[in-house]
Amino acid sequence: MVGITYEDFLDLDHEPDETELVCAFYVEPAADQTPESAASRVASESSNGTWAELQVEGSVTDLSATACGIEDATVSEGRDGYRVTVAYPDALFEPGNMPQVLSCIAGNILGMKAVDRIRLQDCTWPEPLATSFPGPQFGTGVRTDIFDAGDRPITATVPKPKVGLSTDQHAQIGYEAWTGGLDLLKDDENLTDQSFNPFEDRLTESLAMRDRAEDETGETKSYLLNVTAAGGEMLERVDLAAEHGCEYVMVDVVTTGWAAVQQVRERCEKHGLAIHAHRAMHAAFDRLPDHGVSMRVVAQVARLCGVDQIHTGTADLGKLANEDTVGINEWLYSDLHGLTDVLPMASGGLHPGLVPELVERCGTNIGVQAGGGVHGHPDGTHAGAKALRAAVDAVAAGRDIEDAAAETPELAVALEQWGTE
Ligand SMILES: O=C(O)[C@@](O)(COP(=O)(O)O)[C@H](O)[C@H](O)COP(=O)(O)O
Ligand SMILES: [Mg+2]
């Protein structure tokens, strides 16, 4: 038997091996703590230690995490902050169980009194753990596997107002957006199965309009159908989406929870459906730079769990606060032990005039969603769609948007209305 205390979880000479999950935390120790004592408490409480000395069998310590790096990283004036690196042994984790992994690295430690602030900033995922998750089926491949978009961004629109439209109105807006050149219709996050626009009616009527639009345009069109609901009900909605010939489902991954996301991934594998991840509530824990869980880690978790597309912000061009859109996108494209990549979706306050700068910052391997930026067009949805598509086509072809506006009056009106900033 050995006695383990917090101090046993600190070893600044420890070199993580390739099987360990390595996490980077931002930590502000409490007044009565040193950086070392705070770091050891982070490693202990996020693996298998606690506040009292424990007498344990030697093998138990094989599951113990190690705080193996402490660097000064003050983010806010007058507050001492540190970048604390913690290495977690593979055996601590249940393969393929994301809630269990998060209960370690983003669990009780976020509420410890030993730290005034703590934020999980980044993870380096080792092969054994990473490959115990399915990853995405399609990723950025949706641009060519589902659409014939080549190297241009795919486009999407959310009917606005967010909720309150009838099923007929919703489907009609879809028709006008699709025939205006957009690839995807997207449900808003709070539109699920309300009486004014019931789920199955919305599904069948929207897909009927989709089929008409495909016939008229000769282009593939699809629908980000929001299946978010309580566990069993959500899986039934996934089955319905497949049954009616939809290529996608949309899930709000944070409000739904990762266990449910993993269930949806399994079901989508069976049907060959792509998963669009919306992230409502993410800002509850990633907005502040010195506490919580970064959007970078949320995106990593979403990729492992198998979403094909995820909202990552507009590189600060839109209406919502964004954290490191470009860095997160690069990670979503990067190699992860052979797991498929993920298509970032830029959304939130976008309009055609912002497309050149968006692509300048994020490249073309993205999705561009505009709700207000399409339906707020002075001439309506169809014109708004034509304007957005013309902007995306022009920028993807390296053309000046003003020149494109000379050929597409709808784009000229949009630029007149909202400018290019
Ligand atoms: O409800 C909205 O605000 C949107 O539909 C955008 O509408 P607009 O195009 O009309 O702005 C999206 O939910 C946000 O973009 C989500 O935020 P994020 O992409 O940052 O996750
Ligand atoms: Mg929305």
UniProtKB/TrEMBL annotation:
Protein name per Swiss-Prot or TrEMBL: Ribulose bisphosphate carboxylase
Positions carrying N6-carboxylysine: 186
Superkingdom in the source lineage: Archaea
Miscellaneous comment text of the record: Because the Archaea possessing a type III RuBisCO are all anaerobic, it is most likely that only the carboxylase activity of RuBisCO, and not the competitive oxygenase activity (by which RuBP reacts with O(2) to form one molecule of 3-phosphoglycerate and one molecule of 2-phosphoglycolate), is biologically relevant in these strains.
Any one GO MF annotation of this record: ribulose-bisphosphate carboxylase activity
Function according to Swiss-Prot or TrEMBL: Catalyzes the addition of molecular CO(2) and H(2)O to ribulose 1,5-bisphosphate (RuBP), generating two molecules of 3-phosphoglycerate (3-PGA). Functions in an archaeal AMP degradation pathway, together with AMP phosphorylase and R15P isomerase.
Summary of subunit composition and partner proteins: Homodimer or homodecamer. In contrast to form I RuBisCO, the form III RuBisCO is composed solely of large subunits.
EC number: 4.1.1.39
Positions with a binding annotation for substrate: 162, 279, 311, 347-349, 369-372
Cofactor: binding comment: Binds 1 Mg(2+) ion per subunit.
